[in-house]
Specification:
Elements: E1 9-13, H1 19-27, H2 29-32, H3 43-54, E2 61-67, E3 70-79, H4 84-87, E4 96-102, H5 112-127, E5 133-136, H6 143-151, E6 155-163, E7 169-178, H7 179-183
Parallel strand pairs: 4-5
Antiparallel strand pairs: 1-2, 2-3, 3-4, 5-7, 6-7
Helix pairs in contact: 1-3
Length: about 180
């Protein structure tokens, strides 16, 4: 495979050994701007946020996105109803939420996002077989993410404000995918 051909995208379960990459990705300028933090991410913050999810102590599932065998990003999925603070924001509180990032700048705009979400559709169907809706809500200014979601079959929906820990407000755009309609 040459560097010009489409990368092979895979998902694998995240382990604590991946947290050093997660921290690096979170600190990347193209990623850091979308996180609700009061300063740069630290290893302690990353471990506190993602460690319990990796360990299975929280219901959010964590995945590493690989391109041609290299770790380049992450994805998490969860039942929206497990997070009541989010359930009121979606048209379907029984939806499966998905959040993602491509953390390696060299892998941006190379089809990783499209491949990652398409791969995730299979993972989500296996892990949440009764789900009828997938849901994502990027910041309204994150045009690349919004376009990615539409490209893979999500429909853009309501805009809503979400309070951030620092007292400010982020305006998010809900995107829903009707599983049986879009994926068959």
């Amino acid at each position: 495979m040459t560097s010009e051909s489409a990368p092979v995208v895979a998902l694998r379960g995240m382990t604590r050994a991946d947290l050093k990459d997660v921290l690096r990705w979170r600190l990347a300028p193209h990623v850091a701007r979308w996180f609700d933090t009061r300063g740069p991410a630290t290893m302690a913050e990353v471990e506190a946020r993602y460690g319990p999810r990796i360990d299975g102590d929280e219901p959010t599932r964590m995945w590493v996105v690989e391109a041609n065998g290299r770790s380049v990003g992450m994805l998490q999925d969860y039942l929206i109803s497990d997070h009541p603070e989010f359930a009121v924001l979606t048209p379907d509180p029984a939806a499966i939420g998905v959040d993602y990032l491509v953390g390696e700048p060299a892998w941006l705009r190379r089809g990783i996002g499209t491949g990652m979400l398409r791969r995730w559709f299979s993972v989500a169907r296996a892990g949440y077989p009764g789900a009828t809706t997938y849901f994502a809500a990027p910041d309204h200014r994150n045009v690349a993410s919004r376009q990615l979601l539409v490209r893979v079959g999500f429909a853009e929906g309501a805009w809503f404000d979400e309070p951030k820990p620092d007292g400010s407000v982020a305006t998010l755009v809900g995107h829903s995918l009707a599983v049986t309609t879009v994926l068959g």
